[in-house]
Amino acid sequence: MTALALVVALVVSAEDAPPAATTSTTVSTGQRWSVVGGRTVGANGNVIEAGLGWPGLSVGYSRGVLDSLDLGVRLSFNYGLEGLVTRVLPGAKVQGVLKFRLLDKNALSLALTFEPGPLFAVDRFGNGTVAFSLPVGLKMGLAVSSALTLGFTFEMPLWIQFGAGGGANLPLLPGLGLEYFIKSELLVFFRTRMGPTLRPGGFFELTFDAQLGVGYRF
Question: Which of 25, 74, 89, 148 has a Cα-to-Cα distance from 213 of 20 to 30 A?
């Protein structure tokens, strides 16, 4: 009887004891979409973004046709020719926008981008520049928290100038970006990139661009 009473006491005390503390590690996965990183907007989602800086103003729209694929269009009004710091020329550019997500795991995302389109510029003597751009790039995003994402890019925004003195121009542009989510559907961003452009004739010029802007998902 004494042994039985002891067993019953042990069982009751075990049931009344508080559960053992568990240790868990939470990794922030950030928001579902990104402007500076590799995340796409998602199937049937839409994003409008606008940015201002050097070399101009841009407005873009993208739609998620698949969970991993966004298609859209971007219109830019520029006062610098493709970011060349020595070419202060007013102009405009129209681009198609393709963003294909390659990876989205925990806080890390990676995407391939392709943004082809024509561009136009005019110098102070009225001489026009006509070209076609074929930009290819990689975007990587790292969600620091639910509100903050860092972006890392490498882009080769090739553009081909037509007419006399024309030819292929190949920029090699690493870049950084930062976005902050005010709400899950609204963010502000800053992005910049800088590097050399191989110009026709084999010489290099410095290319730089930077934008501060907003993005809205609906």
Answer: 89
Residue 99 burial by Cβ neighbours in a 10 Å radius (0-12, 13-18, 19+): buried
Distance between CA atoms of residues 39 and 23, nearest Å: 30
Q: Are 133 and 91 in contact (CB under 8 A)?
A: no
DSSP per residue over 158-214, as a string?
EEEE-STT-EEEEE-EEEEEEEEEEETTEEEEEEEEEEEEE-TTS-EEEEEEEEEEE
Contact 113, 131 (CB under 8 A): no
Does residue 215 contact residue 37 with C-beta atoms inside 8 Å?
A: no
Q: Does any domain span residue 15? A: no
Tell me the per-residue pLDDT of 191-202, one tens digit each, with 9 for 90 and over: 999 999 999 988
pLDDT on residue 90: 95
What predicted TM-score, i.e. pTM, was given to this entire model? 0.84
Local structure of residue 40 (DSSP, 8 states): -
The number of folded domains in the chain is 1
pLDDT digits (tens, 9 = 90+) for 115-142: 999 999 998 888 899 999 999 999 999 9
- Residue 10: what pLDDT? 37
- Which residues, listed in sequence order, are joined to residue 143 by a DSSP beta bridge? 149
**Of 156 and 29, the one with more pLDDT:** 156
